[in-house]
Amino acid sequence: MSVLPRTFFTRSDVVQIARELLGKQLFTRMGGIITSGIICETEAYAGTTDKASHAYGGRRTKRTEVMYAPGGTAYVYLCYGIHSLFNIVTNMEGVPHAVLVRGIIPGQGTETMLQRARKAKISGDLGTGPGKVSALLGIHYSHSGLDLVDVHGNPDDPAIWTEDTEITVHPGNILSGPRVGVNYAGEDALLPYRFRISGI
What we know:
With 200 residues, the protein is α+β, with helices and mostly antiparallel strands. The protein has 4 helices and 8 strands.
């Protein structure tokens, strides 16, 4: 399979990208160990006009500045001082759109992922929740800003990337609804920007 190209992420419709990431595979290489998971749940955040976005109203801080990078860049932030949450920046440079990866189905490197999660065996909800995604794959908020596209030419750790798969997610198997934990966003909290594969 091949790494998803920059052009996949620099498109203007963050909602479409969030849907199309379902079924793609997310990889990490940390300490020479590769782990991966099939993306099964995402949320779209539409930048300056989206009250649920960290960049709403054009907000720019040391943490959120990476959201203005070109599509295909990692935006990882610390939630509640505990969980690193992994997002993929989308759109062109200067437009702070992002997709939060909320769930994966563990794939390569399951033994390492179980160790990271301090679990004895794989359960149905092992990769459910954005904090769990990062924990399983070894993603830390210090990885914010990593290029997710130009990775195979760089043998050094850390590395995060996405690849296409042979999985075809039928539109009828995609559930959509409001995003989680964004009640502060008022009417924008009701936008159907959360996508997941049914049965997951």
